[in-house]
Write a structure and sequence with these properties.
alpha+beta, 6 strands, elongated
Length: 126
């Protein structure tokens, strides 16, 4: 048999959990979503600007809150950003090499999210 006991005041822990339940965890998601869209749009290689202007995001709430960035410029069922990122064959037998622009573009956004979350956790004082 396993037993657990505790003593003392759990106010800080309870307050921390209440803030998460009340939605504090989502308070900055839209700002981060826009930040990512802007970074991706600026970093997308430009021919017609259609792909660069087609970045969007959505917030998925649940056990694991998530921001999903996606691009709506799709040709023949394939997102154009996938072709740019990973490369693709051409209709004449050639090959266009991929360009890793997504990861470097999002690095700053991910670092900002990590820094902000860490600051928030520290100020909650658990």
């Amino acid at each position: 048999m396993i037993g657990v006991s505790s003593s003392g005041d759990h106010k800080k822990t309870v307050d921390f959990l209440k803030r998460i339940i009340q939605g504090d965890i989502y308070s900055d998601f839209h700002r981060y979503g826009e930040m990512g869209v802007n970074a991706l749009s600026q970093a997308t290689p430009v021919d017609s600007r259609l792909t660069a202007n087609s970045w969007k995001y959505r917030i998925v709430k649940g056990r694991r809150p998530t921001i999903e960035w996606y691009n709506t410029n799709v040709v023949s069922g394939t997102p154009v950003v996938i072709l740019i990122q990973y490369g693709h064959g051409t209709g004449t037998g050639g090959y266009v090499a991929g360009r890793d622009f997504i990861n470097p573009a999002m690095r700053t956004t991910f670092e900002k999210i990590a820094d902000d979350v860490w600051k928030k956790v520290k100020t909650w004082g658990v």
